[in-house]
Amino acid sequence: MMRRLSIRRLGVASRHLSLLILxxxxxxxxxxxxxxGDEDSATVRAVLGPLPAELEGLRVQLRRTLAxxxxxxxxxxxxxxxxxxxxRAFLRIGAEGVEADLGAAAFHRxxxxxxxxxxxxxxxxxxxxxxxxxxxxxxxxxxRLRTDAVAVADxxxxxxxxxxxxxxxxxxxxxxxxxxxxGHFQFVPEPTGIPEARVTNALAPEVGVRAMNGSARAGLFxxxxxxxxxxxxxxxxxxxxxxxxxGVSVNRHSVTWQKxxxxxxxxYEAGSDVSWTAVSSQPxxxxxDPRIGYLGEVESEDTDTVIKRWSIPVTxxxxxxxxxxxxxxxxxxxxxxxx
Length: 339
Hints:
By secondary structure, the protein is mainly beta. It folds into 2 domains: 7-50 and 58-188, no CATH class; 193-331, no CATH class. Helices cover 7% and strands 40% of the residues. The chain is built from 4 helices and 20 strands. The protein has helices at 7-10, 105-111, 154-159, 255-260; strands at residues 43-48, 59-64, 68-73, 80-83, 89-94, 97-101, 129-133, 137-140, 163-174, 177-188, 193-199, 207-212, 219-224, 230-233, 239-244, 247-251, 276-280, 284-288, 305-316, 319-331. Strand 9 (163-174) and strand 10 (177-188) form a beta hairpin.
């Protein structure tokens, strides 16, 4: 019989991993390719590729915190098994929760950021499968996503453009089908500017809304003093946030909330019904909104340019309205120029 282990003993609160660091590092966009970054200078990052058809139904995300982190939710009946480079399984994510082979070095080396220095690659022992999470989701810092050893040719750096510089692959088995989660490594040049969102319209007098900037992951802050509920809708027009006299609640079934939720907030739950959960006792709240940020190309990196126009639908009582705005490219001037 599988024995359930305390997640705290393992050092990973995986139930909340799908929420990790969405508001984490400030990310600048880059003029040549317009891609966002988590650092201030040229860097290499892991990028998740399209999932193969064999993995349809899984939800897979790649987060960049202090190290690349893969997040998987498996709402289906078939288990997903993850293998190390030697073909040894070390994770199973399925309807019965998450099982880990505690005898596999790959599990321990990917379980926390500090583990690679504690567990050697050859530290595997006899298989020891245990249930480590009752829900069918898990996140791990897979070492195959690390960018430390990825080489970038001098010619790529000199061009100053975003470029693919390698590939990564994580072998998995979904049910009886062997396949892989794949992606590539991307060189991102030093930033030359930043996208800045700005609200361009005024709603009712009882609504105050402003853009939150400082990264490519821009957001909105909204305060409300009206009597009728105000509902912010997601990208599919689903209710996402509700403001009223009792405070602010989030619809955990909103797909847009899945992409916007900050660390520690109520997690996303699949479903078509509305499921409200309180996130603030006051009718004001700020959130990252993927509809506002910009990850595309910037043709003229040296001048202020409107690069995106956006509209976020809201309902105030029975009245339909929208928060409208633009995202502009703001060049970053160097602190000092060489003489």
